[in-house]
Structures are given as structure tokens and as C-alpha cells.
Specification:
Layout lengths: L2 H6 L6 H32 L2 H28 L2 H25 L4 H29 L6 H29 L2 H21 L14 H14 L1 H16 L7 H8 L4 H23 L7 H20 L4 H29 L5 H30 L1 H48 L1
Helix pairs in contact: 2-3, 2-5, 2-6, 2-7, 3-5, 3-14, 4-5, 4-7, 5-14, 6-11, 6-13, 8-9, 9-13, 9-14, 9-15, 10-11, 11-13, 12-13, 12-15, 14-15
């Protein structure tokens, strides 16, 4: 195996992380199969775009409301046990969906209720799962590589999961998709069973929930290296990342296509995302992540601007891939910086605030971008998103660039100090 290959997959040196990665990979594919099937079922039952939006809102909004409490639970209790509980509930949720479909008793309110339950589960599952990566990676230096590999796996699942779901929907029906997703959660349970980890030691002091809640936000105010990045991601999630709301309009109105055209656009965005995560996984140790975050944010804004006004479809697909590349690199690098900078006792709450910012802003952003598109058209709405993305980058570039320069100065000072000490010894 080449040195570059070893570098790209170096996190797999940790046995626990390898098991974690396998379990999550299986689960991610199942999750995207279920999401695609739910959307298909709802649309077939209602033929309403509003009901599609309501279904997505029903799953995402509980995560926005409760993720901060999920972060507190992640900091208070054994993360392995939290994930086991969330996987069991997810198995039950997916199985109930499958039974409803196969028995023909499904109604809208039942599907929406089960979507809300899944959103509540995710509010506790995601903070614990994200914070757990720090515990399953043996070498701290491998953490950025592990998080990049997680994003690569998630991007690949997002790219291939819906396609696989479409085949199963056509041949076997939605119930089979839901049962397969229920089985995928078992993959996580099995991986957790085979992991070796020390006995859990609970924190000695447990404060009131409201105090821990305010402590999390106070910590971000005292730690601008984390707080400013979360603020940047919240703004991007509100005004830039909901660009996917406009993709069906581009497929039908701009490129005069059909569902297959929409599939091509999303696939190229997914391919760009996969490429971005593989690149991040291959980074050398010591790479300045904040400088890369600045570059990725610029690529996202430029990609959206060029895609919005490119009528030639093959060239537009290149810009779509560029946008997917920038978006996933921006999110992955931010997550990596936050996890590396956060104090271990605060990590769960910090991640939950990040999730709350993103989950809360995305649905609201979709409404804003949809309304803007009705007013000025999809092409100019996406052009505005790209310009806003660049403006946000400029707004935060001073902080990101300043940190990069400080690191470079410290590195030179350390080098000069080392040389002086060597000369004195000689």
C-alpha cells in the first residue's frame, strides 16, 4: 500500500474507529433509503409540495429544539449507552413504518408522528455520536482524518442511498426500504458490542440542566475560535446552503429537463462532496485548517454564482460539483476545528449548539430562498446566495486569516528559539 493511501486511511489504525465506521456506514445508507421512501410515499398520497416540506420540517425541527439537551446528556452520561438507546428506538420507528406500509394502514398523521419521533431521537443521537469519535480514535492526531472519512462516507451514502432506494421502491415497495433501514441500525449495535473501551466514569459534579445549558453558550462567548465558526456556519446554513431548494426549478425551467435531469444535478453535487472529503482525509498532519476553511467557503460561493448563470448543462454540472465540494469541505473542516478546540467536558454541548444552529437555520433558510425565488426567479436567487456566501467569507476572513498568521508566527518563533538553543549548546 502506498504512503498516500496509508495517510488517507490512517484513522483505521484504531480498531474501535474501524468498527464505528463500518456500523455508521451501514446505518447511513439505510437512513437515506428511508428518507427517500418517506418523501415518495407522502407525495404519492398527497401530490402536495407543501406536505413534502412539512414532512422534512417534522423530522428536522425537533432536532433544532432538543439538540442542546442532547448535548447535555452526551456530557453527563455514557455516550455508548446513549447511542445504544437511540438505535433501539430507531429500529422500532423504522419497523413501525414498514408495518404500516405492508399492511396498507398508513395515513399522513402516522407518518408525520413517526418523523417527529425520529427527529427527537436524532437530537440525542447526533451529539453523542459526533463526540464519540474522539473516544474511538486512538491517536489524537488522526481525529481530522477520522472526521473527514465520516463525511466521505455520509456523502457517498447521500449519493447512492436514494438511487438504491428508488430501485427497491419500484420492485418491492416502501415497506422493504423501511425494514432494511431498521436492519441497518442493528449494524451500529453490533459494532458497539465489539468495541473495547474502558468502564464509564460519571462526572463527579452534576449541575442543574439550566446551568449546563447557559454554561455551554457562555463557553462559546469565551472561546471565539469555536463560537465564531458556529456563527459563520449558522449564517451559511440560513442564506447559502438551502440552494438545493432551487435545484428542481433549475432542472425543469432552466435546463428544460425532467426528474432524470434533477438526478444528474444532485449526483454531480454528491460527487463533488465525495471528492472534497477524500481530499480532506488525505491532508498531511499539521495542515492549517482555518486557511482551508477560508478557501472552501470561497469555492462554495464562486461555484453557486457560476452555476446560477450557466445554461450549458455539462459545464453547469462542473460548477455543481464545485459547489458540492465547497459545501462539504466547509462543514467538515468546521466540525473538525470545533471538535479539536473544544474542551472534553464541553464537547457534547458545543456539538449540540452547532447542530442546533444548522438544523434550525436550514428549514427557515429554505422558506426564505423559496420566497426570494418567487420574487426574482431561481437563477437570480442562487446568484444572490453565492454573493452572500462570499460576503460571509469576507466578514469572517479577518478572524480566519489572523489565526493563520498567528500560527505561522508562533511556528517561526519556535523554530528560531530552537536554533538559538542549539547554538548555545554547541
Amino acid at each position: 500500500m502506498s504512503t498516500s493511501s496509508i495517510s488517507t486511511f490512517r484513522a483505521f489504525r484504531s480498531r474501535n474507529y474501524t468498527l464505528y465506521f463500518i456500523g455508521r456506514s451501514v446505518s447511513q445508507f439505510g437512513t437515506w433509503m428511508q428518507r427517500t421512501a418517506v418523501v415518495w410515499v407522502i407525495y404519492n398520497m398527497t401530490h402536495s409540495a407543501f406536505m413534502l416540506g412539512l414532512t422534512i420540517f417534522a423530522e428536522q425541527f425537533p432536532s433544532f429544539l432538543l439538540s442542546i439537551f442532547g448535548g447535555i446528556a452526551s456530557d453527563r452520561y455514557d455516550r455508548f449507552q446513549i447511542i445504544k438507546i437511540t438505535q433501539i428506538i430507531s429500529i422500532i420507528q423504522a419497523s413501525l413504518l414498514a408495518i404500516l406500509m405492508m399492511t396498507g394502514h398508513q395515513v399522513i398523521w402516522e407518518i408525520l408522528t413517526l418523523s417527529i419521533i425520529l427527529g427527537i431521537v436524532n437530537a440525542f443521537d447526533v451529539p453523542a455520536r459526533q463526540a464519540l469519535v474522539n473516544e474511538v480514535v486512538q491517536e489524537e492526531a488522526d481525529l481530522p482524518n477520522a472526521l473527514a472519512l465520516n463525511s466521505a462516507m455520509a456523502s457517498l451514502a447521500r449519493l447512492l442511498g436514494p438511487s438504491l432506494s428508488g430501485i427497491i421502491l419500484q420492485r418491492f415497495g416502501a415497506g422493504t426500504c423501511f425494514f432494511l433501514n431498521a436492519g441497518s441500525f442493528a449494524g451500529v449495535m453490533i459494532s458497539l458490542m465489539f468495541m473495547e473501551h474502558p468502564p464509564y466514569t460519571p462526572p463527579k459534579i452534576k449541575k442543574k440542566v439550566i446551568f449546563e445549558l447557559t454554561e455551554g453558550f457562555s463557553y462559546l462567548r469565551r472561546t471565539p475560535a469555536i463560537g465564531l465558526i458556529i456563527l459563520m456556519l449558522a449564517m451559511v446554513s440560513l442564506l447559502v446552503l438551502p440552494y438545493d431548494t432551487l435545484l428542481p426549478v433549475f432542472a425543469k425551467e432552466v435546463f428544460k429537463g425532467d426528474a432524470a435531469t434533477f438526478g444528474y444535478i444532485t449526483s454531480f453535487i454528491g460527487m463533488g462532496a465525495v471528492g472534497g472529503t477524500i481530499l480532506l482525509a488525505s491532508l498531511k498532519l499539521g495542515t492549517d485548517l482555518k486557511l482551508l476553511l477560508l478557501i472552501a467557503s470561497i469555492i462554495l460561493g464562486v461555484g453557486l454564482i457560476l452555476f446560477s448563470h450557466t445554461a450549458y448543462f455539462p459545464l453547469a454540472m462542473f460548477f455543481a460539483a464545485l459547489s458540492g465540494f465547497g459545501a462539504v469541505c466547509q462543514a467538515t473542516i468546521s466540525n473538525t476545528i470545533i471538535q479539536m478546540e473544544a474542551a472534553p467536558r464541553m464537547r457534547g454541548r458545543v456539538i449540540s449548539i452547532l447542530i442546533m444552529a444548522m438544523f434550525g437555520m436550514l428549514p427557515l433558510g429554505s422558506l426564505i430562498i423559496g420566497a426570494l425565488s418567487q420574487w426574482i426567479g431561481a437563477t437570480y436567487a442562487m446568484l444572490c446566495q453565492g454573493i452572500i456566501g462570499l460576503f460571509i467569507t469576507i466578514l469572517f476572513s479577518r478572524f480566519l486569516r489572523r489565526d493563520y498568521l498567528h500560527r505561522k508566527i508562533r511556528k517561526n518563533v519556535d523554530k528560531n528559539t530552537k536554533e538559538l538553543i542549539t547554538e548555545e549548546i554547541e
